Every structure is written in structure tokens, then in C-alpha cells.
Amino acid sequence: MSREPRRVDVALDEWIATHEAHRADGYTFFDFVTAVDETDRDLPDKPAGFDLVSHLYEIGDGDVPGVRASVMTRARVPLASGDDPAHAPSLTGLWRGAAWHERETFEMFGIVFDGFDDGTGAGLRKLLLPETFIGTPLRKSFVLTARASKEWPGIKDPGESKGENPRAGAAKRRKVMAPGVPDDTWGPR
Q: In sequence order, which residues have a C-beta less than 8 Å from that of residue 40 and are 6 or more positions away?
């Protein structure tokens, strides 16, 4: 088996047909489906949105057991307008195991999977966070308020630590905020 999976980029409307073709080609072991937040990357050939990514294995049987090959498929899910969520087709009709991954992706990125069916009849719902939690924590736009409410525990920039400054007299670096920290309009720190 090649260590690197074969990579396939498809349009979102070809997502199910491509996975049906992969399955017919012997990629029957479903590994995962997830998303990557690309909402800040608006390219001419790919508008801003989420990259939906799946990984499948071709498993040998009979005399040659084990993994033979793998394929990684990616499709861009465009941002929806206004407060509407992004939508993508569900893989649960091909692999029941996709339900757990789609529920997690729904919860963390807010992508709604059309045709989702995990066999319970309960529909697409949260998996890891409490029902009262509001937000999509793996989106780049999600504000990590805990970083603003208490001091960042990481290493300090030169000149910020208490005690002696090994670079006394040196110019101070611009203070950089940790990713996800809201600006001062969110209130006192």
C-alpha cells in the first residue's frame, strides 16, 4: 500500500456519486469525514467556505488481508447567506459509521447534512457538547472568551515577564493577541 492516500477534489453536487464510485472500486472501509474552515480564503476557483473531507480504505480479503490503498475526497461547501447554515449531502446512506462524524462536524462547524439518518430517527443533533452550548467552536470566527477573561498561560514576550529583563533597553515587540481573543469592545479583561 502507498502511504499517501490518493486525493480527489470534487464539486459538492458530486459528493455522493463520487463516494458511490469509490465504494464500487473497493473502498469499502469508511475512516472519517470532517471539515476544514476555509472561510477566510476566497479564491477565484474556490469561494470561501468549508472543505468537507472524507477518508476511505480499500481492505484486502482472502489471501491478502490488510489495507491495500486509501483515498481522500474533498469538496468545498460554500458559505450560506445570512444566518442560514451551510448544507452538504450525508454519507450515512452508504456508511452508517458516517453518522458519528457528521454529527461532530455539524456540532463543531455548523454544517447541516441533508439526508442524515443514523437509524434512531432522532435526526441530526449534537454529539459532544451540552444542548445549552451556543456556537460552533472549530470555526475560525468562534471567539474564545476564556483567553480574554484570564491571563494567557504561555511564554511571555521579552519584556513582559516580571523580574529581570534580559533585553533591558531593547525595543519592545508589538504585543500579539492569541488566536480567538476578542478585541476590547467585548468588555474588560
A: 48, 140
Residue type, 95: W
Report residue 9 as a C-alpha cell: 477534489
Which set of grid coordinates corresponds to residue 127?
A: 454529539
Collapsed DSSP state (helix, strand, coil) of residue 24: helix
pTM: 0.75
pLDDT given at position 73:
98
Find the mean pLDDT for residues 8-24.
97
> Using alpha carbons only, how large is the chain's radius of gyration in Å?
22
How far is residue 120's CA from residue 133's CA, in Å, rounded to a whole number? 23
Q: HEC string of 158-179?
A: CCCCCCCCCCCCCCCCCCCCCC
Instruction: Judge whether 45 and 75 are in contact, CB under 8 Å.
Output: no
Residue 115 phi/psi, 5-degree rounding, is 85, 10
